[in-house]
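Running co-folding for oxa(dethia)-CoA.
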Amino acid sequence: MYHSKINGLGYYVPENVVTNDDLSKIMDTSDEWIQERTGIKERRHIIRGQDTTTSMGVKAAKIAIERSGLTTDEIDFIVFATISPDYYFPGPGVALQQELGLRTVGALDIRNQCSGFIYALSVADQFIKTGMYKNVLVVASELQSIGLDMTNRGRSVSVIFGDGAGAVVLSREEDITKGILSTHLHSEGEHAKELAVLAPGMGGRWVTDIIAENNPDDESYYPYMNGQFVFKNAVVRFSEVINEGLKANNLEVSDIDMLIPHQANLRISQFIQQRFKLSDDQVFNNIQKYGNTTAASIPIALTEAWEQGRIKEGDTIVLAAFGSGFTWASAIIKW
Ligand code: UT7
């Protein structure tokens, strides 16, 4: 029986900064509204032709592999989380395998929205625990900007999301007091349509039907979110799944050195921080700079926290996410 530990980590965000004022030029919104409701000041959007979901994932992965000290030949498996793949199929895992020049290792795509990275981490952790693989590359990348409804109709969703990627190399750890202590995954399909993009599947129809109908008013291509309903469920599930992780490891809230919540909304993170009575030092947020990057948000935040020296050897790190599905998850890590 082994544990797995994060052995290298990295992130990449496109250079193009889009401020709230930039958005207010193309839709009826304001810096004041966005900051008050979400805490977001700016986000990154790709420049078309310069980046894709795969290319961002590749850039983050290269940094993570370099920091792990491993060669690409030592990577045994790829797990790639995204809701914004370059192609409907195949998923970006195989493109990453090719672009990084990895051996013909397995590549698994995970589609679990904002919980995607923790689901991916959990899958990688199980492969390592059983002894099947030694080093697994876990990547999360999202290119959301080109799929958003940038008109007034879509403003409550489109101001929130941003583009970016994060990656970690998960490696075998023989000391079972270290590394990922546990992961906890959940779902509740009853609320699937409260945060969703319905096309191109459409529950029985297909994108070709929609194109044939050529209806420019069809909203099904764009993400829909019942914001307040999602918010209310998020704060409950975040709390539950953090507690579940702590309990499974006989840990107390006071043992948390760093909580890295999925960056859905600064207000959600603050709510959780208050509920658990955590200090500012115990919670990491960067949604102010990047918006909500869905599956990529946790590995981007984890990498930034680590780069800023806010994660030290021996720290107890809690990752927690909630999003479309609904799905939610947590991971408890001894760094
Ligand atoms: O990452 C996955 C999980 N996601 C989440 O957890 C997100 C959860 N939800 C939220 O973060 C919040 O619900 C939002 C930030 C999405 C929305 O904030 P809200 O406080 O729930 O606002 P609302 O949707 O209730 O809208 C309030 C008002 C409405 O106007 P009326 O009806 O009061 O006149 C909206 O039309 O604000 C209006 N509005 C906007 N105004 C300016 C909606 N979007 C905008 C906008 N700019 N971008």
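Result summary
The chain is about 35% helix and 25% strand.
The CA atoms of residues 52 and 143 lie 7 Å apart.
Job closed.
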